[in-house]
Amino acid sequence: MIEQEDLAGSFTLPVNSMTLNRMGYGAMQLAGPGVWGPPKDVTTAIAVLREAVESGVNHIDTSDYYGPHVTNQIIKKALHPYSDDLVIVTKLGARRGSDKSWIPARSRQDLIDGIHDNLSNLGLDTLEIVNLRVGGMLEPSEGSIEEPLSVLAELKRQGLIRHIGLSNITPKQLSEAQTITEIVCVQNYYNVARRTDDAFIDDLAAQGIAYVPFFPLGGFTPLQSSALDASAASLEATPMQVALAWLLQRSRNILLIPGTSSITHLRENLKAATLHIPVEVLADLDAIGRGQGGQMRTVVFVAEGRNAIDAVGEINGVHAINADQQNMFDRAGGGGSVAILSESQRGCECEGDGQKADTKSAGEVHDVPPRWDRR
Question: pLDDT tens, position by position, for the chain (375 residues)?
């Protein structure tokens, strides 16, 4: 049973005693499919935002390259003028191409333009927290971040930014960043199956720096997903609720930003703050990520009705499932290389998120990101 005890609480950043409720909201899903263009139902998107805030969320994660511009404009329409305790956290470091691609954008002019786009579309004079996004799509990559971070530090001195965070970084990059400016939060890919940042989280907690994980259900193998399902069933909760509750109980400096465009899913996500995970179930969940290293998995789709294991086997880290399996994309790892082994699977649409593999022919391998609504 779900115990009605608030395990989320709040976290106070080390600057200006800014207090954030640990259960936040990620706005990426408010844009259309593929995080491009407007949503089908702007009215529902506005309702989701308003209910989130009315339910106690005071920490919204967004970016002007979601849409692009769409999510920030919806946030402004739904919530402006903003309440005094609402903290909108945006990010810079990318832009969208006309072909819907994600393009690194960390030059001085890119960053300056990005700040002003966020200010304009959110209707703000100052951005409370801006995360500098570096690295790849999901993984950090070592290398100096001095040049782009120095631009943000300059904009902070000009009063356009109050606080700076980092996204998709390594501990070494954090150390470099702290010689340039104060860092209040780190946003990386982490969940119960992907534990590569365990020591990093503990170090950040000791420094009073918030850690904001994204993709709480990304990177699971079918076996790991089954273990999560079993734990969820024992608690009479959904797998997402358990994944979120585990993160809340993992460390007090973890803040969550689950995203959805559905009021029903929003309510389910918020209930994770009341889910108490007993010690024995925590042990089962901890075992999910033990020794996994958090690597991306390969998803192999085969024609409906065929036995997936017979079709391609389960070798070299390739986990095969039937294309008609419920929630197939999540359960196979939430992203990675998709090999279409049947001509009938060309352009196969991933359950629930509107993204398509968009392959030309059977046998082609195509990389796709994790489900956006799991952020």
Answer: 333 345 589 999 877 678 999 999 999 999 999 999 999 999 999 999 999 999 999 999 999 999 999 999 999 999 999 999 999 999 999 999 999 999 999 999 999 999 999 999 999 999 999 999 999 877 899 999 999 999 999 999 999 999 999 999 999 999 999 999 999 999 999 999 999 999 999 999 999 999 999 999 888 888 899 999 999 999 999 999 999 999 999 999 999 999 999 999 999 999 999 999 999 999 999 999 875 443 433 333 433 333 333 333 322 233 333 333 323 333 333 333 333 333 333 333 333 333 333 333 333 333 333 333 333
CA distance 22 to 256: 6
Question: Are 318 and 301 within 8 A, CB to CB?
Answer: no
Which residues participate in catalysis according to the annotation? 66
Phi, psi of 88 (to 5 degrees): -100, 120
- Residue type, position 186, single letter: V
Q: Say if residues 302 and 252 touch (Cβ distance below 8 Å).
A: no
Tell me the two tokens of residue 184: 């209040």
Strands 365-368 and 10-12: unpaired
Question: Which domains occur in the chain, in start order?
Answer: 10-287 (3.20.20.100), 298-374 (no CATH)
The CA-CA-CA angle for residues 76, 25, 152, to 5°, reads 70
Q: What is the DSSP letter of 100?
A: S
DSSP string, 179-207: TTS-EEEEEEE-BTTB-TTHHHHHHHHHH
